[in-house]
Design a protein that fits this description.
Distance between the termini: 36 Å
Strand content: 5-15%
Radius of gyration: 18 Å
Shape: globular
Number of helices: 10
Number of strands: 10
């Protein structure tokens, strides 16, 4: 593990773009003022990496929160994602422009294909992804995104994409927490210089009920969330915690004054299935 000391430390993506090691997630954050206020609070707490998606319906609020913070656009790493109905070459080109309009910016730092095999394209997902990725590469070259990647892709989806891609995805954002380490996906990502971003790093809340984590947290005088996020960093993942509560937003950023022992990392690694598993992208009903 690299020596991490602060929230603004970065990983370097395959194309040299630097990405802050912890992002602020906005999934399930309401589109009204909650998105704007939580993003502004996160930036105030020191986050410099915000993650949203067209599907979340809150891109306007996220963009407003960045503007409210008073930070320069260049100081904030911003990710959004292509939704399932917009796959295909032309639709992808239109979707990024629509997202940029909603966000109120002329570029994002990272643009991701949200799911590899939407129900709308299930019979043609290989060809559709190839055309979508061709558009993504052009979006990168046009400067509308500084980096491009995928989300919820498994090795067979990535292998298929590689047949026609000129650029390897720089990021794969997946459901990743002590309940589901997705070892095959993570190993594939590492072998291909793809950063593993961890969405639902707190297992959509269920992780807080795991007895082993409560014990470890008590020993370190930390919250369960802090323990799990630190675990994520020590695996060289990039966690995307979300909260709409200012106190928790601040707490989730305080990860750099302790380190988990090798033994405790192993204990946490063994918690498979305690807080849900990743959705299978090939059978998801959306």
């Amino acid at each position: 593990m690299a020596h991490l000391t602060k929230l603004t430390d970065t990983y370097t993506l395959a194309n040299g773009v630097k990405i802050p090691i912890v992002g602020f997630g906005t999934w399930q954050t309401p589109a009204d003022t909650a998105a704007q206020q939580s993003v502004a609070a996160a930036l105030k707490a020191g986050y410099r990496h915000i993650d949203t998606a067209a599907a979340y319906g809150n891109e306007e609020g996220v963009g407003a929160g960045i503007r409210q913070s008073g930070l320069q656009r260049s100081e904030v790493f911003l990710t959004t994602k292509l939704w399932n109905g917009d796959h295909g070459y032309n639709a992808t080109k239109q979707a990024i422009d629509a997202s940029l309009t909603r966000l109120g910016t002329d570029y994002v730092d990272l643009y991701l294909i949200h799911w590899p095999n939407p129900i709308k394209f299930r019979d043609t997902w290989q060809d559709t992804n190839a055309e979508t990725w061709r558009a993504m590469e052009e979006i990168l070259q046009a400067g509308k995104a500084r980096a491009i990647g995928v989300s919820n892709f498994r090795p067979h989806h990535l292998d298929e994409l590689a047949k026609t891609a000129n650029i390897t995805p720089m990021v794969n954002q997946i459901f990743l927490n002590p309940s589901d380490l997705q070892p095959e996906v993570v190993a594939y990502n590492q072998a291909h210089n793809i950063l593993s971003e961890a969405y639902s790093p707190l297992g959509t809340g269920k992780i807080f009920e795991v007895g082993e984590l409560k014990k470890i947290a008590a020993r370190y005088h930390k919250s369960v969330a802090q323990i799990v996020l630190r675990w994520s960093l020590q695996h060289d993942f990039l966690p995307l915690p979300k909260s709409v509560h200012e106190q928790r937003i601040q707490e989730n950023a305080q990860l750099f004054d302790f380190e988990l022992s090798h033994h405790d990392m192993e204990v946490i690694d063994a918690l498979h299935g305690t807080a849900g598993l990743a959705t299978d992208p090939d059978t998801a009903a959306f």
